[in-house]
Amino acid sequence: DQQVKQNSPSLSVQEGRISILNCDYTNSMFDYFLWYKKYPAEGPTFLISISSIKDKNEDGRFTVFLNKSAKHLSLHIVPSQPGDSAVYFCAAAATGTASKLTFGTGTRLQVTL
Amino acid sequence: DGGITQSPKYLFRKEGQNVTLSCEQNLNHDAMYWYRQDPGQGLRLIYYSQIVNDFQKGDIAEGYSVSREKKESFPLTVTSAQKNPTAFYLCASTIGPGRGSPLHFGNGTRLTVT
Fold first, then answer.
1. A106 touches chain B (CB under 8 A)
2. Cβ A43–B42 below 8 Å, yes or no?
3. What pLDDT digit, counting tens, does each position of A41-74 carry?
4. Residue A104 forms contact with B (CB below 8 Å)
């Protein structure tokens, strides 16, 4: 049972435009959400996180939005740059679970010139 | 520079052989984790350890074993009992079991078993 879902396996966006990556979750116990970026043959690197007490968190070009009632979060990248081309993983955790993250299947973002 | 070192980057083994993947961190993190990535799938948790000499099974622990004798080291053994061992293995660590610190990952070991 996939508790964290990223339904778009890939996304292509022009440089300078907005990239929107989506993530849905089913476990209502999840209260902490993260986005990771991964290049081929490397480990994921942490991008941004959000706690369930917030509905938005911003860090430079990256903004994460959380809609708890819809169990949906999204990552916005504005403006998109070619170096943003990577696989993006959404992850979630519940309080008291020892930082055990449940990951989505990832979305491959391609930023074109 | 602090970080997580996984070695080797690529590993090849014959079916039926046990193999141990190394993970060392110099971040002084208490908690360490092993994840597995397969094509088209998210990362799945194999084992984790919150403190030295203690570890717990993750979601897909069957066919794997770990040890945590030192804070900085968390080796993973892929045994011959693991039915589909070929995968990309990622080690991670975090300061503690709370949510305040996200996981830091190593660069992974790609294991191929033929």
1. yes
2. no
3. 889 999 999 999 999 999 999 999 999 999 999 9
4. yes
